[in-house]
């Protein structure tokens, strides 16, 4: 009986994940106010899309050749 209840709860949770509709503010709420210098009110999609500063591109700078390390006068053995 307990396994059946867990299975039903799991299926109900998975069924709820499948709903795909446009995001809207909760009833009684509105979108954030328009930024002062923005020409138009940003849409929900605009607000959810990360800008380059929020998600920078990865730098794929590979080490092309090995280089010898310079002597480090602070690299001392343990005492």
From TrEMBL:
Residues 1-22 form the signal peptide. Transmembrane segments: none annotated. Residues 52-79 have a biased composition (Basic and acidic residues). The keyword Signal applies. Keywords: Signal. Residues 39-51 have a biased composition (Low complexity). Residues 22-79 are annotated as: Disordered. It comes from the Bacteria. This is Argininosuccinate lyase. It comes from Edaphosphingomonas haloaromaticamans. The lineage of its organism: Bacteria, Pseudomonadati, Pseudomonadota, Alphaproteobacteria, Sphingomonadales.
């Amino acid at each position: 009986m307990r396994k059946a209840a867990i299975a039903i709860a799991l299926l109900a949770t998975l069924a709820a994940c499948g709903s795909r509709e446009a995001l809207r503010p909760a009833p009684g709420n509105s979108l954030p106010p328009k930024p002062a210098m923005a020409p138009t009110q940003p849409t929900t999609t605009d607000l959810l899309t990360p800008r380059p500063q929020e998600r920078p591109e990865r730098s794929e700078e590979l080490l092309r050749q090995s280089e010898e390390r310079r002597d480090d006068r602070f690299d001392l053995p343990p005492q």
